[in-house]
Amino acid sequence: MSDFALNAYLAIALSVALHVGWNLMARHAKRECDPLWWALGAHLVLFAPWSLYHLVVDTTWTSALLLALLVTSIANPIYFLALRKAYHYAPVALIYPMARSSPLLIALWASLFFGVSTNYLGWLGLAIGSVGLALLGWSARGGDTRHALPFALLAALMTSIYSLSDKIAAPHLPNFATLMGFISVGYALSFITLSTLRYRATQRIVPPCAPRKWIMLGGGLAIGTAYALVVGAMRELPAALVVSLTNLGIVAASLISLFIFGERTAWRLRLFAAIIVVLGIVMLQMSV
Q1: 0.90 exceeded by the pTM?
Q2: How far apart are CA 240 and CA 196, in angstroms?
Q3: Dihedral angle at the C-alpha atoms of 265, 268, 270, 272, nearest 10 degrees?
Q4: Which of 80, 96, 155, 209 is most solvent-facing, going by the fewest CB within 10 Å?
Q5: CA-to-CA distance for 16 and 190, rounded, in angstroms?
Q6: Alpha helical stretches, state H, 139-212
Q7: Residue whose C-alpha is closest to residue 231's, from 86, 51, 56, 80
């Protein structure tokens, strides 16, 4: 394994840790406080001025990078809107694993449109991982699943689209600051879109309450940094593998809730589903 590939795996591991940390923090925020809105806003305050400057100054702009930025910036707000709509009908524990079942789609689009080949073991690993994520979501079924699922699947579709555009952009972004700037463009549009819809629905932009300050700060530090680390890892590894590896965060969060927080609902199915997800990832890694 090259030093660059090793660094990519370390970046993914750090991204997973940040992602799990944010999810555990968000557990302590009320849903009506809209912690995602606050986290996006905190990210923009903390990182946007610095990172956008470096994105403009340090980057050699090409048509491929501009197209990738456009696609990611459109897909990101749709992803957040789809997630938000799905969460209106069903709990996060059901929706999020479904929304993250995108690696199979990523490999499919990469094969159809970019000629990227995946062997039989890789396809089998992707399929098994998707089944595991579906089972993990199903273990937390509740609410209006019938209306929630189409929006969860739309979120998965958007993830597959912006992951491929991120993969195209990654080689053109020379440092971490430009990676964060690339992310900040999509997050800014997502924040504006969510704020606009909130204003149309409630006649106010700011949610009626705010999470604790440490949750807002933690979210602001974690969500963009975790995403930028993933995009950086795509310089060395296939997009479908990178996104699959980040799904270890969902497995970790599920196991933490099971063994640390004592959430025993459907624990056998959740444990089985987590094992299936890990098995799929191992098979995909072996195929690379």
Answers
A1: yes
A2: 32
A3: 180
A4: 209
A5: 22
A6: 145-169, 176-202
A7: 51
